[in-house]
Amino acid sequence: MADESIYSEMKKNGLSRRGFLQFCGLVAGAIGLSNLPPLQSSGLPAHLARKDATQSMVARALQTKPRLPVIWLELQDCAGCSEALTRSQSPTLVDLVLNKITVEYHETLSAAAGFQAEEAKQAAMQKYAGQYVLVVEGSISPKDDGVYCTVGGRSSLDLLQEAAAGAAAVIATGNCAAFGGLPRANPNPTGAVSVAELVKDKPVVNIPGCPAIPEVFTGILAQFLVFGSLPELDNLHRPKTFYGTTVHDRCLRRPFYEAGKFANSFDDEGARQGWCLYKLGCKGPTTYNSCATLKWAGGLSFPIQSGHPCLGCSEPGFWDGGGFYQGQSAPLARPALTTVGAAAAAGAVLAAGMGAANQAQKKSAGRSEKKEQG
């Protein structure tokens, strides 16, 4: 049940006080609390006081707050974000489910199915009205009365509106939920739209990616769990902690970019030496995400490290931004800070800017190739 405090549940499962405090430190790291100003009341130096303050802050919250109820909807999606979450390393999915949240409804992970699952969802929405976090995976199809995406005979639009009405906050996970994703690609036959375009009266956090990085999701959920608030967002409703810099900014191949060393094909000497993939279409300079720092599979690797260009999957309209292996533009202006209620139209503006910049870069790349051939 979600009513028991998190610490009580962990203690019941055999966790010691020392282990609990160590866990609080991990949660603080997942939230990104290292940037908080230190508390000086202890009289310790700032670099020592900071850690104690943030850890104690998390410990107090976990000792008094009940576990967080979560309702997870899957609409026009491939379940990729759910699959990625099962491989989350910080905190792990098992730890999330058993100790810090209660997943009241999830079509893929729930043991129940059919009428039983739907009844459980209805009961949870009534019991935890105004308290639960709604997670949406996949885009919504309102076109033609929603016939292109239905669950249990109900349209995706109907399901979203019902669940969002009683939610404390909404997390749109993956590019499909955040910006429309693949279902929205031209010619968009289902009329796919994003969550933020439909939910206007609740705070919405976008964590785009294809799929979204699982540690980003768990970090946001941990912050809401501890403080009951959402992180600072940019103008596309993305958390600045994880989307404040480009992939290019932290890329391990960045030194080769600065030195002008680029791979021109996937099997040339530059590719074998690990040179920059910019000329092979890497979208890292215009893609805001933490892939290069958090990586995947517990920090093992990410696409560029594995030898493939960034596709820009955390940006709006990336499916329609030109060929994945065509030249990319210079970095655009960094996203501006905003409150949760910022205009959703900013996504369309950025997408249009990326398209125009890409066209200019393609022409420039073409002229360069002709000179090299000449």
Summarize the structure.
The protein folds into 3 domains: 6-63, no CATH class; 67-231, NADH:ubiquinone oxidoreductase-like, 20kDa subunit (Rossmann fold), CATH 3.40.50; 243-373, Cytochrome-c3 hydrogenase, C-terminal domain (Cytochrome-c3 Hydrogenase, Chain A, domain 2). With 374 residues, the chain is of the alpha/beta class. Residues 34-42 and 338-373 have low confidence and may be disordered.
The main sheet orders its strands as 2-1-3-6-7
**Helix/strand order:** HHHEHHEHEEEHEHEHEHHHHEH
Number of separate helices: 14
Biggest sheet record: 5 strands, parallel
Q: Any idea what the shape is? A: globular
Structural class: alpha/beta
Mean pLDDT comes to 80
CATH superfamily of the largest domain: NADH:ubiquinone oxidoreductase-like, 20kDa subunit
End-to-end gap:
71 Å
Q: Can you identify the CATH class of the largest domain?
A: Alpha Beta
Count of folded domains? 3
CA radius of gyration is: 22 Å
Helix content: 25-40%
CATH topology of the largest domain: Rossmann fold
Strand content: 5-15%
Do you know the CATH architecture of the largest domain? Answer: 3-Layer(aba) Sandwich
The tally of beta strands, per DSSP, is 9
